[in-house]
């Protein structure tokens, strides 16, 4: 059964809009930030990570965003290009804005947190007039991420991108990617997230992210089906609710639900799971696979990334995901 019909014969499989940042991941793992002395620099930002993941899986990809006009911005641009991502709609800021930094603290494989530096960041300065309609018209999928809705003018840029995607029947994926520090109030967050979600074909988020969107609603038991059902009255065809190590559940407009278990992992850190899951899942769906197989593929990709030090740089190829699944099936990967 086909749940989502991707447009045929477009130049790009996948385009994302949103933040391009830097992750500084602690080298001394299993220590608090206060005692961490060195970090390794990687390209970061959830939509950037997903795009890198899609590119590693062999998809034709592009990015719409804004980078700082400095060494960090150039590092990001060059990394995207080395990964085969079209950067023709990556705009360079000329106002002196900086690159967002995410310092990651890895206290233990299950206790990880992120310290964000996001004052005057270039990614939130993308303007609606800078979004290229033709690129969205040429893409099968547009992925938006919630953080880009947090402030103007990036908020208007995303809404304009949604308008172009609707006009050209480009499939819209919403990765909720809720980062509280970028928002000023729960009410503002819920209102903008809900407005955007109404236009989206596929919505992916954690239980906690959907809870935030339900600020004005009545779902006292945090029931996944109640959460998903609402979106089928709008544009959604698939809603996925992720539950960390417990796996994920997908609901479809036809009233079906599918569960996916997580794969075993020798966890180094937990962040990056959602981004790699999204890339693996969307790749599978775009190959015409079943939802179950696509979710399982995303789960395997997630296990690979959380078993690695980075998010972006660890995004796996098809061969790596296939190999990981085979090794798990042979019982060769034992969780840490
Ligand atoms: N500790 C873990 N062990 C194995 N797989 C995991 C673990 N944590 C997350 N995953 C996988 O990654 C997917 C997404 O993780 P989740 O933590 O729910 O999202 P996010 O990273 O967006 O918060 C899960 O559905 C699961 O397949
Ligand atoms: O999104 C960011 O700005 C930071 C990411 O690059 C980071 O590595 C991360 O937190 C990934 O998010 P997740 O996949 O939702 O765990």
How would you describe this structure to a colleague?
Residues 14-317 form the Carbohydrate kinase PfkB domain. Pathway: Polyol metabolism; myo-inositol degradation into acetyl-CoA; acetyl-CoA from myo-inositol: step 5/7. Belongs to the carbohydrate kinase PfkB family. Keywords: ATP-binding, Kinase, Nucleotide-binding, Transferase. The protein is α/β, with parallel strands linked by helices and 336 residues long. The chain has one domain (12-19, 46-96, 122-329): 3-Layer(aba) Sandwich (UDP-N-acetylmuramoyl-L-alanine:D-glutamate ligase). The chain is built from 10 helices and 13 strands. Helix 1 (46-56) crosses helix 8 (273-286), helix 8 packs antiparallel against helix 9 and helix 9 (291-306) crosses helix 10 (318-329). The longest helix has 16 residues, at 291-306. Bound molecules: adenosine-5'-diphosphate and the ligand O=C(O)C[C@@H](O)[C@H](O)C(=O)COP(=O)(O)O. The ligand O=C(O)C[C@@H](O)[C@H](O)C(=O)COP(=O)(O)O binds next to strand 2, helix 1 and helix 8.
């Amino acid at each position: 059964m086909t749940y989502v019909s991707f447009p045929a014969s477009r130049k790009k499989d996948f385009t994302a809009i949103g933040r391009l940042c830097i992750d500084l991941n602690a080298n001394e793992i299993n220590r608090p930030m206060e005692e961490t002395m060195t970090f390794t620099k990687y390209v970061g930002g959830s939509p950037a990570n997903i795009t890198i993941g899609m590119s590693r899986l062999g998809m034709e990809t592009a990015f719409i965003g804004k980078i700082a006009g400095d060494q960090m911005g150039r590092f990001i641009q060059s990394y995207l290009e080395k990964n085969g991502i079209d950067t023709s709609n990556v705009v360079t800021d000329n106002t002196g804005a900086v690159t967002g930094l995410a310092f990651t603290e890895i206290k233990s494989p299950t206790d990880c947190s992120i310290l964000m530096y996001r004052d005057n960041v270039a990614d939130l300065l993308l303007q609606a007039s800078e979004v290229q309609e033709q690129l969205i018209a040429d893409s099968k999928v547009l992925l938006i991420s919630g953080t880009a809705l947090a402030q103007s003018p990036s908020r208007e840029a995303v809404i304009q991108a949604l308008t172009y995607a609707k006009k050209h029947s480009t499939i819209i994926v919403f990765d909720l990617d809720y980062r509280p520090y970028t928002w000023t109030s729960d009410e503002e967050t819920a209102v903008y997230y809900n407005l955007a979600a109404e236009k989206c074909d596929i919505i992916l988020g954690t239980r906690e992210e959907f809870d935030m969107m339900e600020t004005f609603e009545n779902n006292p038991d945090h029931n996944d089906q109640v959460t998903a059902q609402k979106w089928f009255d709008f544009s959604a065809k698939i809603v996925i609710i992720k539950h960390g190590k417990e796996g994920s559940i997908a609901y479809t407009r036809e009233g079906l639900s599918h569960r996916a278990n997580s794969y075993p992992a020798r966890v180094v850190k937990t962040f990056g799971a959602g981004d790699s899951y999204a890339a693996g899942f969307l790749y599978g769906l775009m190959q015409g696979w079943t939802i179950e197989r696509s979710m399982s593929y995303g789960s395997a990709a997630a296990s690979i990334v959380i078993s690695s030090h980075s998010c972006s740089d660890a995004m796996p190829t098809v061969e790596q995901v296939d190999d990981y699944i085979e090794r798990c099936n042979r019982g060769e990967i034992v969780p840490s």
